[in-house]
Amino acid sequence: MKLGFVINDISTEKDNYTTLRLARRAIRDGHEVAMIGLDGFIYTSDESMCGLAHRPSRDEYADDAELLADLARPGVERESIAVAELDVLLLRSDPADEIGKRPWAPTSALLFAQLAAQRRVIVLNDPIHLADASNKTYFQGFPAEVRPVTCISYDPKAIRDFVDAHDGSCVIKPLQGSGGRNVFVVSPGDAANINQIIEAVTRDGYAIAQEYLPEAREGDVRMITLNGRPLQVDGRYACFRRRGNGGDARSNISAGGSVEVAEPDERALWLAEMVAPKLIRDGMYLAGLDIVGDKMIEINVDTPGGINMAEDLTGIDFSGAIIADLVRKVQMRDHYKGTLSNVELACL
Questions:
Q1: Do 283 and 343 touch, CB atoms closer than 8 A?
Q2: What pTM did the predictor assign?
Q3: Which CATH superfamily is domain 149-212 in?
Q4: What pLDDT does 295 receive?
Q5: Could you say which of 85, 110, 129, 153 has the lowest number of CB atoms within 10 Å?
């Protein structure tokens, strides 16, 4: 299998990213791997597509850090590859990382990904629906029973009114963003600072205000889904709990949170069941469900992470299961000789 990963840039990749874990597992299984940055696509005059890629130089790595060091080794220029010859293109870039310097990059890369899908490359998550899911308004398309009460606005008064309606307790965060950046938990004692909080969050666009869920003090549960369903291998779910660092309300690992083993309870599995139809319909092959108490606070479909954490905590080979599933999809595509659409293959 020829497997491409679309990343922000090799210089911003980190050795604790799920992308590196999946790439290393694929290399170990004998598959060809290429890393393409958001600025690495070329549409040529003969209507073919190329990608400027970083390629591994070996077929075995001791850990993810060793693979990253090899991919980013100095003095090696990117190699031009034919995108149409890839079997699978995994979209693993984070649009939030590009807001400041390269706001054009994520949208442009999605357009190239759509062109790749037209050339029978299996593109995951489905690039057409991923364009619709580029910010957190996508979450509002899921049943109200799974979501906290939410207000999305750029207007400070509308946000303040929402906070007042919830007795001064809520969460305010950017509509576009990840990693826990600019996420504020507002309590009744924060009334004097509410204007500054809203200003900080809306500096780059719309804000989301959500009802505060008291269970958030215990962190959140991240459950990974594959093909729209909870990823399970050898009876274990790819699932873990993230806790904030001391007084920090953010449980994101990139914001200093910690992680521990967790088993999804009956409510968490019910929530996953409720969101599955839309994930499947939209071709969201790999997603991360973030659960607090009896609600889902986010669904991550842009570069969902956590596979490496789930593996390190449990010793279960979740990445191997994902690579094997991709091989199965390629076989199904070839058997059906192009009659299955990308969105059908995505969650087949």
A1: yes
A2: 0.91
A3: ATP-grasp fold, A domain (3.30.1490.20)
A4: 95
A5: 85
